[in-house]
Amino acid sequence: MDIYDPCSTAYKKARRQYLKTTKNRSKDLDAEWTPFRAAEKRYKARFPPPDLSHVLDLASTAWDADTLSSGCNSYCNGVEIKPLNQIDPSGANVSKAFAVSSVPGLVILPSFVSPEHQRRLVRWALRDHARHPNETNLDAHYILPDEGLWNARLNSSDASLVKTRPYIPDSSYESSGPRQLISNTPADPANFKAMLHSPKPPPAPSPTVSSASPAALISKLRWANIGWSYHWGSKQYDFAKGKGSVDEEIRSVCKRAVRSVNWKDVFGQSDEEGWGDEHWRTWHETYEPDAGIVNYYQIKDTLMAHVDRSEVCATSPLVSISLGNAAIFLIGGLTRDIDPTAVLLRSGDAVIMSGPACRRAYHGVPRILEDTLPDHFSLGLDDEDPSNWTSYESYMRTTRININVRQVFPKGFDPSLQVEDR
Predict the structure, then answer these.
(1) Helix, strand or coil, per DSSP, at residue 81
(2) The dihedral of CA 291, 142, 323, 6: what is its sign?
(3) pTM for the structure as a whole
(4) Cα separation, 142 vs 346, whole angstroms
(5) Strands (E), 310-373
(6) Measured between alpha carbons, how far is 79 from 102 in angstroms, rounded to an integer?
(7) Got the DSSP string for 107-167?
(8) Residues with Cβ < 8 Å from 99, sequence gap 6 or more?
(9) Which of 405, 392, 398 is nearest to 353 (CA)?
(10) Three-state SS string across 225-284, please?
């Protein structure tokens, strides 16, 4: 990337901007940062460009068969990992899998999704999923076309505008203004009923947005809900809206990822607490994803450190699939005071966060790496009309799509009984 070349225009521009913005900055400012915040700042910085030499990049190493089958711990860019024995009930080829020793329950499957499948998932995320009835970040502010923004963009002229929702001051909405930081109580079976009936007012339409073309709004698309509806204001699920569907293709790839891992290799020697009634020994049979989100990151977007506390089941696998440009993923521990592990996630990689330590760990995405779109997003496939892919390729040049799906309830928990007992 040009940013690493001191003679490049990009490097010189970043340096000028850095000197301008830090001229009056206190030299002691970074002393107040937690280890996680310091890592976020380091990888987010445009200048100096981040040093990736200590980022776990599983694609940077050629793994021989003996190493993969040994099950012995090894190191990649200074990060301790353990190759996992794979389980493949179908008999088809499966990708490699690695456990990260610093975060018990974190499993990475590099290149898990094939190039052809990645393109299908991009189409699904843009054309099929980001539309009614699946809520997006734009629904609160715009009256989106039923066909979805992507299809409207392809099928309409730039003169066709998407209208805004009328702003009427009303106490039934969430309070307007900047989003407040919320530290929600971790969900569990004991507090589910209280969480179920807590107020979840809809977000207020913005009074400042204007009507815009579908093409202009596509660049503002940031997320689309999967399955159970998530209420961002309270950081809880809004079960009153009912259970949305999980696309069969997404459900299938996530279950395949979970079933391909030999969980005894991951947790067989673990004695950590916090499992409740859920246990890794049953995941091959019982894992059933029922909620999630599609994130649409543009190059300068970030996802700051956070913890997933909304699922009643705090241990079952969360499966995350990366598509498009590569990203730096940080994951630490139960507080921001634990130095996080940095992982380079490339298109097609799958990450599984599982178990009580990993599912409650702080994690985030401080950086999308420019110009890292794989070649297979720009090459035509033998059975494909190139004109049908051109618009997707153009969008993905500055985008990373992340599909992550999880299981909200533990095995044997029936939420309908709680609803009936209101």
Answers:
(1) strand
(2) negative
(3) 0.90
(4) 33
(5) 318-324, 327-331, 341-345, 350-353, 363-368
(6) 8
(7) EEETT-S-HHHHHHHHHIIIIIISSTTS-BTTTTTB---TT-HHHHHHHS-TTPPBPBPP-
(8) 81, 82, 84, 106, 107, 265, 266
(9) 405
(10) EEECCEECCCCEECHHHCCCCCCHHHHHHHHHHHHCECHHHHHCCCCCCCCCCCCHHHHH
Pairing of strands 79-83, 98-100: antiparallel
The pLDDT tens digits along the chain (422 residues) read: 677 777 888 777 877 877 777 767 766 667 789 999 999 999 999 888 889 999 999 988 877 766 777 778 888 999 999 999 776 655 454 568 999 999 999 999 999 999 999 999 999 999 999 999 999 999 999 999 999 999 999 987 666 899 999 988 765 666 555 555 556 788 888 888 888 888 899 899 999 999 999 999 999 999 999 999 999 988 999 998 989 999 999 999 999 999 999 999 999 876 667 776 668 999 999 999 999 999 999 999 999 999 999 999 989 999 999 999 999 999 999 999 999 999 999 999 999 999 999 999 999 999 999 999 999 998 766 556 667 899 999 999 999 999 999 999 988 887 776 655 54
| Whether 336 contacts 34, CB under 8 Å | yes
Q: Which residues contact 379 (CB under 8 A, 6 or more apart)?
A: none
Bridge partners for 111 per DSSP? none
Cross-strand pairs, 323: 401
Spatial contact of 290 and 318, defined as CB atoms under 8 Å apart? no
What does the alpha-carbon distance between residue 79 and residue 57 come to, in Å, rounded to a whole number? 9
Angle at Cα 179 formed by Cα 136 and Cα 42, nearest 5°? 95
| Number of neighbouring beta carbons within 10 Å of residue 345 | 27
The one-letter amino acid at 270: S
- Among the listed residues 217, 241, 236, 192, the one whose alpha carbon sits nearest the alpha carbon of residue 409: 192
Q: Indicate the SS3 state at residue 294.
A: strand
Coil, helix or strand at residue 86: strand
Tokens representing residue 92 in the block: 């088809």
Q: Which of 108, 212, 124 is nearest to 165 (CA)?
A: 212
What number of helices (H) and strands (E) belong to the chain?
13, 15
**Residue given tokens 């091959």 in the structure block:** 284
| The token pair that represents 38 in the structure block | 């310091």
